[in-house]
Amino acid sequence: MHEVAPAVFHIPLMPRNSINCYLIDDVLVDAGIKGSGKKILKALKGHKVSKHALTHAHADHQGASKQICTALDIPLLTSEIERDNAESGYATRNYPKRDSLIARFQQKFWAGPGHKVDQTLKEGDKIGSFEVVDTPGHAPGHISFFRPQDGVLIAGDALVNMNLMTTLVGLGLPPAAFTTDQQQNIQSIKKLHALKPNIICFGHGPVLRDMGKFDHFVRKLT
Ligand SMILES: [Zn+2]
């Protein structure tokens, strides 16, 4: 794991940064797929971890949540809207086509078991040195984490920095097949852009420091 900003560590879980989680202060944000637990626990060794928060309860973010919370004896935090899916483990419930082949594959092989949510997060809540930003659209209760003092943004899947089919690096909208309301998500991306971040950390793809690329991407959104 690699420190991308003070007290912000990037934990890549799959080759080419295709699935990531982050340690921000003492909070683990997201937890990969259900097979990611060992890797995450190894990366966290020697670090103080007091909480685990989810940007949203999709299968490639909540996969190892139960394992991590149980192993470290830490609480799980989600938005109120994501709570049900995090607790039930029904991670693909809000996909546009929840019975599609890809949704069923993810639910079966990626999604982890549900786990009790101990605390819910809402816009403006402080989590370590970060603040919660409501960014619905990709998932109905999707949230991001922003640190105003240096502009570090944990964007979750509001946008991605990798084409998930080709693994080519570059900014894009999250795939439509896994996004509940893309128009609402675009509004959330514009909201994040208005915060003027300096560094963006994604659920999928490498960390971005070139904000010219972000400006360009947002300008093209309609
Ligand atoms: Zn997602």
The CATH first-level class comes to Alpha Beta
Level-2 CATH architecture: 4-Layer Sandwich
Could you tell me the radius of gyration in angstroms?
16 Å
Computed structural class: alpha/beta
Mean pLDDT: 97
Q: Which stretches are poorly predicted, pLDDT < 50 over at least 5 residues?
A: none
Which range does the strand content fall in?
A: 15-25%
Please estimate the helix content: 10-25%
Distance between the termini: 36 Å
Give the strand line-up of the largest sheet: 1-2-3-4-5-6-7
Number of strands: 14
Detailed description of the structure:
- The chain is 24% helix and 25% strand.
- It has 222 residues and is α/β, with parallel strands linked by helices.
- It has a single domain, classed as Ribonuclease Z/Hydroxyacylglutathione hydrolase-like (Metallo-beta-lactamase, Chain A), CATH 3.60.15.10.
- A seven-stranded mixed β-sheet has the order 1-2-3-4-5-6-7.
- Strand 5, helix 2 and strand 6 (76-79) form a beta-alpha-beta unit.
- The protein starts with a strand and ends with a helix.
- The mean pLDDT is 97.
- Zinc ion (ZN) is lined by residues 56, 58, 138, 157, 178.
